[in-house]
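Q: Hi! First time doing this. I have a protein sequence and I read that you can turn it into a structure. Is that right? Here it is:
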Amino acid sequence: MEYFIELFLSGLTRGSIYALIALGYTMVYGIIQLINFAHGEIYMIGAFVAYIVCGVLTIYGFHGVSILIIAGLLAIVYSCAYGYTLEKVAYRPLRGAPRLSPLISAIGMSIFLQNYVLLAQTSDFLPFPSLIPDFEFMEPIAHIIGSAELVILITTFVTMIMLLC
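A: Yes, that's right. Below is the predicted 3D structure, encoded as structure tokens:
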């Protein structure tokens, strides 16, 4: 039974991450009325920025939570800049065009950003450093769910509640 609970919570954590991405897709479609195929690539760029910032700040000896906050803020800034540029360059000029033109532009930007990151970074698996400390109150159940998974679940729950209000 314990193994089932561990698998259930692991699946719930992964599903929470997918739910946050799906909320982003929904919000983008609701605002610009366009299926943005490059949405996932913007997330990818944010993840790579956070990864690079975490690596650099770890070398300089910053504390884990401060690294997490700084990396998160810089990832948000870079992702917003890429999203804004993408909207200005690829989507805004096609506002009055037939529906197929912005869709083709979105697919093209998705392919461009994928290849851009593939050339700028690597296609190898890179583990993200563990920045969330182990919580003392979770010691009895640490073998079932970790601190990072708990933070993901709480963040997803709070975000979904805030978006419902």
